[in-house]
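User: Structure please.
Assistant: Input sequence and predicted structure:
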Amino acid sequence: MAHRYAIGQVLDLRSAPRQSNRPSGPCEVVACLPHERGPVLYRVKSLGESYERVVEEFDLVPSMAVKAEGPSATEVFSIAVSRR
């Protein structure tokens, strides 16, 4: 079975069943994990947290959220040059 979602794609993570601290909300696919049998797995990073989680494809749904971009390398470089 192939992976449905691509690296870098922003999706919604469903809340975990029962006693779990996994939040629901937007997350970004960091890696598509290899598998032979069993569920298709992804490594995702929630946009509201600083660490990554491994989740099943079933726990992810398409999202309308957009990943916030930081400053580009050219913007950082121009700031550094203008301060000299």
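The first strand starts at residue 10 and ends at 13.
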